[in-house]
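User: Continuing from earlier, I have the next pair ready.

Assistant: Great, send them over.

User: Here they are, in order.

Assistant: Folding the first of the pair now:
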Amino acid sequence: MVVLGPERPDPILPEVLERHGIRGAVALISAGWRQDEARDEPLRSALPMAIHNLNIYQAFTEIERLAPDLTSAYTRKQAALQAKRTLYHDAIRAALSGCQKLWADRKDPECPWFQQSIRHLQEVDNLWLEEADRLHRQFEEEARPLRHRMVRAEMARMLDILRGCEAVLIAGGHVGVLRNRLFFFGMNQLLVGRRIFAWSGGAMVLCSRILLYHDFTPYGVGSPEILDRGLGLCPDTFFLAHARTRLKIEDRDSLTVLRARLAPARVIGLENGAVFEGEDLAYTGRPEAGFAFNADGSTAVLGR
């Protein structure tokens, strides 16, 4: 398993693949690019090996067009998820506001009221995941997408490609779309045991849970929220791509609350040039391109 930061502006993937001895064909997952999924010419020009794009986004689009029964059920599930997500947004904003006020007043991590507020934040996150799990399970039991002839045909095509490749590359893009398309085609099962090189949003979906975060939205500071479960290939870890541009890294109060909320998982910021390798995800990237979030709201840069 190799996790990289964003590949722009200075790509590091070619040298990482070379260092790992990857010279044969590789499979590419770029569903997060959505309609631009097939526009992989820059990657092809940068890498010497054959690249087989799995075209997962396009495969789903074809199923939308030709299997309205299945996609109608999927659309209903997504609408139900969005309704639950709206309730989750309201609950997490209220819980987060109370927690942040307690921290601002006390600045004491041992304060029982602060600890209770953190547990409440975690309970709200867990409740959302339980609701999402229930809706995913209901869709799978009723629509049986992995038994649908078109889905099975696409999965067989993808598996055939994967069998002929030395490694799988997972690009970023829209992390929600990437996550949903991967799970729709059972890639949470097909990717197990394979050599994976993932970057940016692709790294985020490897985690057990996916965190969305942005302190600089047009509407002000956004409330960090759990998108859904990820592939679970990097358990007990949250990867946050572009963390320095999307979070107020100097706001230690806010980061203290965020770090406590996500505990005991480790929280890692990914910038261009970050590389984590092996089962223990040891850091081997460029100095300061990867950094850990500490319990006191500070960050510890890696690779110095």
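And the other member of the pair:
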Amino acid sequence: MADQNVCDIKLSPNLDDSLEYVRVVFTHCSDIVIRRFTLFHTTDAALLYVDGLIDKKQVEQDVIEPLMIDRATLGVTPEDMDLIERIGVHAANVTSVNTYTDAVEAALEGKAVLFLEGLKVSLVFGVAGWPQRSVNEPGTESVIRGPREGFIESVGASVAMVRRRLRTTSFKTESMQIGRYTKTDVVVCYLETIADEKLIQEVRERLSRIDADGILESGYIEEWIEDNPYSPFPQVQNTERPDVVAAMLLEGRVAILIDGTPFALLVPVNLWGALASPEDYYERYIIATFIRWLRIAFAVISLTLPSLYVAVSTFHQEFLPMPLLISIAAARENTPLPAAVEAFFMEITFEALREAGVRLPKAIGQAVSIVGALVIGQAAVQAGIVSAPMVIIVAITGIASFTVPRFNFAIAVRMLRFPIIILSGTLGIYGLIIGLIAIIVHLSSLRSFGLPYLEPISPFQPSGLKDTLARAPHWAMMDRPLQTSKKNKKRQTSAGYPHHRQPTQNQEERP
């Protein structure tokens, strides 16, 4: 979509008219460069580009310098556009445009546009070269074992990282631009022989319906395309890791890469994917299963532990052994606040300290958050504002929340902790059960691009249980997830079973 001040007008053969039009369009744009020179020493020409978006060295060596040599040595005329493209310049990507709209948009995309006297066509050279950071390990998805590279803000580089892992012609990429003013490049990636065509079409339609001024990060698109915008649970997975994108594409899912951000979006997703870590598939399945059980258990603890403590200490003391009950009662003897208010106050304080630790510089952020928690907790206990058991409960809950590998899912659990504390403080254990039932009902009704959020548990699909609560060995997961790969269900065959399942000839001959 063109800007409002650029009309879809054909290029003029008069060079001065074209440059005057460009100057009017780019009024008060100090970064716009118009370089005039003589093409082949005979024809007036001008090169338009945006300073900072192009590689100046490449422009000088591969575009301007070849076009300024003597025409007699080439035996061509400026009207011979094909020869100019093939002989005159060395840029790898050369195209032509015939409207001012296309010329202006090409310049804003980091390309150089060549206007020629006497021609109604301009050449566009792909010489983009803005500063960008190098590839390094993702900060939000670090692993002990696995690849160390993550996406960067260039969508072209991100696509190349995925392409390097999926060396097949089935890997398809569809590009589009979203945003009236930002014109952000968005690339939809999928495996044609695996992904369901209905899912691909649904992704296309949801993206095409976005009509906004600008898209600056993947979070903009995520809110536009999710099924239920009022749910605290994420229905779109984000990741900085190319290996995660490749793995999801092999399961029939669709990836959305956005220029200007290192985060890619993956659809559809489910609850079990939010609780899974990339490292689950790089360690042996026994270790991965144990760690996944630990992660799920601590996710439940993160959600329910403060509420359970409030309910038991306030309404259901008979649940506790007598020595523990006496210890808790003694600790709470001088505490003026009810257990629910105490838990609410401590959880809010802990969340504030965690947020402060994230926003502060890295050199002092971690120290401030840890020291702040210790100092405030100890001072609050000594002052009699909160009890020591509550500090222990909040600390365990905070540690448990860090075991959830996906930040957007972890923060949803942290948010839901507060209404459950209120329910437990007013209705006891019944309030906790009501809150958990409400969450389960909501998760059962939630969809991600039509995929049930609790699938394959609800609806129950036995074939999909090999990668939910536990992770089966790679050689045992022969089928892809049913809902996302109806076109191509088989992931592998049984021919690659380990030797203990199919003994070799040498093993059979051993006594």
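Worth noting for the second one:
The CA atoms of residues 172 and 390 lie 54 Å apart. The chain has a mean pLDDT of 84.
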